[in-house]
Amino acid sequence: MTFDSWGRHERSGTTAPRVGLFGLLGSGNIGNDGSLESVLAYLRTHHPDARLDAMCSGARQITDRYGIPATRLHWFRSEYQTASGAGSLARKVLGKVIDAARTTTWVRRQDVVIVPGMGVLEATTPLRPWGFPYALFVLCASARIVGTRTALVGVGADIITEPLIRWLITRSARLACYRSYRDVYSRDAMRRMGVDTSGDEVYPDLAFALPTPPVTGTRGTVGIGVMAYCGRNSDRGRANDIRRTYVQAMARFVRWLLDGGRQVRLFTGDQEDEGVIAEIVADVREHRPGLGPSWVVAEPVSSLPALMRQMAVVDTVVATRYHNVLCALKLCRPTLSIGYAAKHEALMAAMGLGEFCQSVRSIDVERLIAQFTALESRSEQLRKTMAERNESTLRRLEEQFTALSAALFPPVGLGVEGRPGQSEVR
Fold first, then answer.
1. FRET pair for 326, CA 20 to 30 Å: which of 32, 170, 208, 269?
2. How far apart are CA 368 and CA 377, in angstroms?
3. What is the pLDDT of residues 122-171, one digit of tens each?
């Protein structure tokens, strides 16, 4: 996919491209930051002269960790907190107006803006239309107006039923100049919501391009990736009950693993998951007081590479967060997914483990135990399958980066017309 010529500005051959990176980055979700790290590695390897900038939710964290200048995504610092009164609500409304101006100013400074991976076109966890969906729409609309190229690279999507969120997301996708998806399901979801995807490609998730740490493994150790799962938008009224049911099921499964002589390592994918870990550890102490601390280990992580280093010492993984599942598969760890969206099933099927899935909305612990037992018994065969799929995945990601360079960084002076594989964005 390439660009139409509306408002597009050209850069001179002597000027380094100005590349902006946009999204919920630096906010504590290590999956989002992992996608960013993959794109940063690509840019620094293939386009080392690019001048990088970011507009994101955790600006200070992104600057401190990656050494690039960053602008805060929202003017109102309490954007994701429920308004507590008229004054707070007024500041939120004012913030939307200010954010539109701030985003346009930032976008105008860029030649290209990349939204690196993430589930930016889905609403599989609680989401308000005036949060990130609005921010993404403002980005894509302002980029069209000022002539900056925008690219949604390796993103996730799902069918959205909430009318306003659906409108903002689909409109943003139509305004973007380049789109690629992390699985076929995501592309099909956008097509079913009325977006022309005929020129869009599917590539593996960007996080697969991150370096793989040495794998050792400790016999009998099981990695458990947890999530502070509270349901979807439609579940807000019973979010606490959903979370409680999930934690109880995971705690029961952990006790079963311990009773079978297996040690457990608990993983997170977001800062908000740490409360779930604390509850599971407390449950073990209450019901299995005689076990020493080495039986259940929980160490916080702040990046996907750090998470993979922890996963490298376990034999098998059972996980809920998408990027916990992905990292386990990348490490060729026999994996069982307790997923909250269709993207989990698509990922597991692509890696040859489609039968080892459950929905987080209806966890059946007895079935989980049966699946885990089967997973262990077939571990050698599954490791070989994952190793083969990982090789293919890396080749496809190289193709993604080659296509991205052709679309976003064409040779100076090459016109829009006549590029191979182009399709007009509608």
1. 170
2. 14
3. 998 888 999 999 999 999 999 999 999 999 999 999 999 999 999 999 99
pTM over 0.70: yes
Locus of tokens 């600057």: 63
DSSP strands (E only) in 311-385: 316-319, 335-339, 357-359
CA-based R_g, the chain, Å: 22
Cα(110)–Cα(99) distance, integer angstroms: 17
Residue with tokens 């995945």: 393
Rounded to 10 deg, the angle between the 342-350 and 322-330 helix axes is: 10
Round to whole Å and give the CA distance between 47 and 9: 19
The SS3 call for residue 176 is: coil
Give the containing element (helix H, strand E) for 92.
helix 86-108
Residue 370 token pair:
């049966």
Find the length of the chain.
426
Confidence at residue 232, expressed as pLDDT on a 0 to 100 scale:
87
Question: At what angle are helices 365-377 and 379-408 packed, to 10 degrees?
Answer: 90
368/356 Cα distance (integer angstroms):
9
Q: Which spans in 119-217 are helix H?
A: 132-146, 163-175, 184-192
What domains are defined for the chain? 18-202 (3.40.50.2000), 222-388 (3.40.50.2000)
CA distance 213 to 224: 19
Buried b (16+ CB within 10 A) or exposed e, 295-333: bbbbeebeebbebbbbbbbbbbbbbbbbbbbbbbbbbbb
**Sequence-separated (6 or more) residues with CB below 8 Å from residue 57:** 23, 24, 25, 26, 27, 72, 73, 74
- CA-based nearest residue to 57, from 29, 24, 16: 24
Cα 58 to Cα 33, 70, 131, 187, 206, distances in angstroms: 10, 8, 15, 28, 20
Strand order in the sheet with 149-155: 70-72, 51-56, 18-23, 112-116, 149-155, 178-181, 201-202
